[in-house]
Fold this protein.
Amino acid sequence: MILVNETAISAGIKHWEESTCIIFQRVSPELKITPLIEFIKGDGCYSNVGAYRHGRQYVSIDEGCNTLGTVAHEIGHVLGLFHEQARFDRDNYVQVVHTNIAYEYAGQFVKQSLDTINPFGVDYDLGSAMHYDQFAFSGNGLPTLRTLDHNYQLTIGQRKQLSFNDIKKINFAYCNRTCILQLPCQRGGYTDPKLCSRCRCPEPFSGIFCELPRPGSSLCGTLEHHANEAIQTLTMAGVGECNYVIKIFMLQAKPSKRIYLLFDAFKFDSSVLCGDSFTEVRYKDVSNTGARFCNVKPEPLVSETNEAIVMYHGDALSYFVIRFRALEQSETDSKTAVKSISVLNFIPYDVDLGIPATKLVPT
């Protein structure tokens, strides 16, 4: 009998148990108990979608599957999760490049309908652990998936851990009756079925109602920044994890106000898929996974609301320098206006010297 990696499987199970009301009970495979999930060392990583009501369900965890995120991915299938790019609304977020898919794997990209997928009101998540990466099942080495917002191309395919929305869907499916009272959670949070007196919050937030930035490393400095018409600077370098919240007070701001972000200096680990060293910017829905950058300096970004989140995951060689300010709606109406802001209103930054550079160089 070929033995599976029990450490990896236990870590994947623990990841789900710590985040949901679901409990997995280990039993001897000799017992005639059904339904039963049996982990095997098959040919690759795979599982059917949905738990069997009768009989034994096999989940394959081969040598290349022994990471927390991959094991959690396969257990996600057992719990009822399809691949994220199989959602009925995927065409609003990604383009499937069918001509680049290896012929024998075309079935892996079939789109489901509302009859087979219930999203429980949770939006499409490009950072889901259930999402394929850009080169999945490629027959020619070219991308099989392209994000419609190109800033998210390195977000898709992560297998580090379950995303907030992966967990949210399963909690809504299995745990909605755990808490009698529902708390007024902010920023897409919801009443935590593990502790009904608090909210379960998206990664950058903490507090009882998700009202605070989640504390990070000691070097992060101030986590909450208030944007106005003046240009401000946010810098971070070295090892650490920081969750920066940049917002405009609605009491003093017009509803049309947005936040403009310009990366003046940027260095993170070069990788086809952003791993442990990257910056994530949430400039759309702050509760959903944002655009991840690790090998190319981001273009200027404009938030869709009065709030933007910058998440720093750095190693010893990582750093960024970000200039930001509030924008009027008229300044965001055209790309020409946004470009003029970056050229005229910002001074390039020399990260080695830590002082403004002497030349104005448009990018």
In short: The CA atoms of residues 162 and 238 lie 26 Å apart. Helices lie at 6-19, 68-78, 164-174, 335-344. The mean pLDDT is 89.
